[in-house]
Amino acid sequence: MRVDINNLLNFFRLFLERNLSNLCDFMEDELINDWLQSNWEILVESQICFQGKEFLEVYGEGADCNVASSRVWLPDAQPTHKIIVLIEKYSHNLLKDNSIVKPDEGQIIFDRFVSWDGERYGYNAPLDYLLADKAGEELLLPLEHVKFSVCRI
Q1: 68: pLDDT confidence band, cut at 50, 70 and 90?
Q2: Where does residue 124 rank: exposed (0-12), middle (13-18), buried (19+ CB within 10 A)?
Q3: C-alpha closest to that of 4 among 52, 41, 47
Q4: Are residues 32 and 25 in contact, defined by beta-carbon separation less than 8 angstroms?
């Protein structure tokens, strides 16, 4: 890995905060997902993975611009790495009655950055939450309780 993953993902989150809400005003969801995935590949994957040989899992829902893939660049490429969420002490899953999530309860796989208004998540700044998956369960976690790591699949 060439860069600090936590700094890189924070940079990407801030990039999204500055740009995403403007796009949501006039672009359809499918185009937004294409834009998110293309920027994920350019800004994050290119800094973490050996170009052309290693690939990250898709960001969020991935792109819809390639029929056979959720990737934008090299649609036939298969993911070799994923972003793992590390909980420092504990966190609360806001999608499940504020249930407590502990660091030793299984691998948590990063999905995307989101905002939270107390009832639903979205893409309005600030993007100070994340969606993740733990054994098929969707988690919504505040960023203040997590760090990130890259893991080979």
Answers
A1: confident
A2: middle
A3: 47
A4: no
Domain ranges of the chain: 5-152
Q: Residue 15: name the closest of 26, 4, 7 by CA.
A: 7
CA-to-CA distance for 127 and 77, rounded, in angstroms?
Answer: 29
Per-residue model confidence (pLDDT) at position 127: 96
Helix, strand or coil, per DSSP, at residue 39: helix
For 14-23, how does the pLDDT look when each residue is reduced to its tens digit (9 = 90+)?
A: 999 999 888 8
Per-residue burial over 79-114, b = 16 or more CB atoms within 10 Å of its CB, e = otherwise:
bebbbbbebeeebbbbbeeeeebeeeeeebbbbbbb
Report the C-alpha gap between 82 and 51 in whole angstroms.
15
φ, ψ (nearest 5 deg) of residue 15: -60, -45
Segments of 26-136 assigned E as strands: 81-87, 91-93, 99-101, 108-116, 121-122, 129-134
Q: How far is CA 66 from CA 45, 49, 80, 83, in A?
A: 18, 21, 19, 23
* Residue 150 · residue 48 · CB < 8 Å: yes
